Amino acid sequence: xxxxxxxxxxxxxxxxxxxxxxxxxxxxxxxxxxxxxxxxxxxxxxxxxxxxxxxxxxxxxxxxxxxxxxxxxxxxxxxxxxxxxxxxxxxxxxxxxxxxxxxxxxxxxxxxxxxxxxxxxxxxxxxxxxxxxxxxxxxxxxxxxxxxxxxxxxxxxxxxxxxxxxxxxxxxxxxxxxxxxxxxxxxxxxxxxxxxxxxxxxxxxxxxxxxxxxxxxxxxxxxxxxxxxxxxxxxxxx
Length: 238
Ligand code: FPP
What we know:
Elements: E1 9-13, H1 17-23, H2 28-49, E2 53-60, H3 68-91, E3 94-99, H4 107-119, E4 126-134, H5 136-152, H6 163-167, E5 183-186, E6 205-207, H7 218-229
Parallel strand pairs: 1-2, 1-5, 2-4, 3-4, 5-6
Helix pairs in contact: 1-2, 2-3, 3-4
The structure holds farnesyl diphosphate.
């Protein structure tokens, strides 16, 4: 994979943890534990390859409907990941960002995230973005609300609103040049976007490997990237 056909921004819907666990006779939460190990590997590989932004869908707004026990495992895993990885992320120049309505998360998880984001704030090599309590419709609604408020305050005029006006008010705006997704991967064979990065995926290429997330190794990831490399992206042109 050369730099020219490496996607700058990869987004992943890490699907299939529950099915992986249940099919092996384990409780669902064990799938998340195994899934968290994959997060570590895929983050490392992305950085090694030179990916500029990696966004991981760790928790959707719909996931709040899950049993309390499963939610609590997810928050524990998130905190463990941060604690274990922050030093290595720092050494590798990785900046951590969070998108979503993550103020709904339990306080300890929020505190840990804030501290890690501060520690990693000057990372220049790759943005690692966790989508937590994220929903694209909520993000777009929030952007529209900000625009309406700027219009009310006289900062903006309706006929001056462009695509860039909206893009600048999305939660991904901090990613600058890399805010749009080049390559979207959803594991487990499901072929849906599930309210993930609707605006940012306008010109993304998609890959739907059958592999369940806990089995999605670095080798599988490289195969996805090869499929991406073989695509011709025309962005509506010829
Ligand atoms: C989808 O599988 C996965 C999730 C809802 C959570 C993803 C979380 C992790 C991979 C681990 C923790 C995250 C970090 C950032 C360390 P599912 O449970 O919907 O699977 P199913 O469709 O088979 O039920």
